[in-house]
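Section 5: illustrative case.
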């Protein structure tokens, strides 16, 4: 009985039809492909110069920054990209003195906003569908604005505007996850930037208007500084047509 059960089973295995499955291991970027890039960058070093007089002392730093880029492939090798950073913070405060100190009430508002654009382009070398290697350049620029209101005395207002422009280069690689239109990547970049009027504020106090730099008041004030920065970023990209 045992032999009778084994023989049909053996015949079924040995006479089965062979089958081969192809396991897909990636995608290849093509002309007309769009991509959305989500990541985080660590700025791990800077060399700063003051008043464009040259490069000053080395300053170590580390800061994590969220990244969002939109990409578009002009052809199978050339990628264009645009990174956008928009921020706004608002802080309000109010307090009242003790009656023995006069019992006066005070209220303040601090508003910080910024908008930075990072247009760029990259060239993709690899024609493999698993690991994609690329290099490129970008031209970051944008504005930051800080406004301090004295809501106790509405005639007082402090405004600080800063313009930044730079030039950067980067190299990176990304690996596609299976046959999904999703890739994980790593990118290293180095860039130089010029900052115009950081810390220079314009004060309106009643009928008087003046500018402030480092706590001192001036009829007019201008300031520039520059720097060279290094960063490494890790990303997750989604591609579609």
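Designed sequence:
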């Amino acid at each position: 009985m045992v032999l009778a059960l084994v023989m049909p089973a053996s015949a079924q295995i040995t006479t089965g039809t062979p089958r081969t499955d192809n396991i897909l291991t990636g995608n290849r970027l093509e002309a007309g492909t769009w991509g959305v890039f989500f990541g985080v960058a660590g700025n791990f070093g800077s060399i700063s110069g003051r008043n464009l007089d040259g490069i000053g002392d080395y300053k170590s730093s580390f800061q994590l920054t969220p990244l969002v880029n939109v990409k578009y492939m002009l052809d199978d090798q050339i990628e264009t990209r645009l990174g956008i950073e928009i921020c706004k913070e608002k802080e309000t405060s109010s307090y009242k003195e003790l009656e023995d100190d006069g019992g006066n009430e005070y209220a303040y508002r601090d508003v910080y906003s910024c908008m930075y654009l990072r247009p760029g382009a990259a060239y993709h070398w690899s024609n493999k569908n698993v690991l994609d290697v690329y290099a490129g350049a970008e031209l970051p620029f944008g504005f930051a604005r800080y406004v301090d209101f004295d809501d106790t005395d509405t005639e007082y207002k402090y405004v600080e505007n800063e313009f930044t422009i730079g030039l950067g280069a980067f190299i990176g690689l990304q690996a596609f996850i299976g046959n999904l239109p999703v890739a994980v990547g790593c990118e290293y970049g180095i860039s130089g930037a010029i900052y115009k009027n950081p810390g220079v504020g314009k004060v309106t106090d009643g009928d008087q208007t003046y500018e402030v730099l480092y706590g001192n008041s001036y009829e007019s004030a201008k300031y520039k500084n520059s720097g060279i920065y290094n960063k490494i970023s890790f990303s997750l990209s989604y591609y579609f047509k």
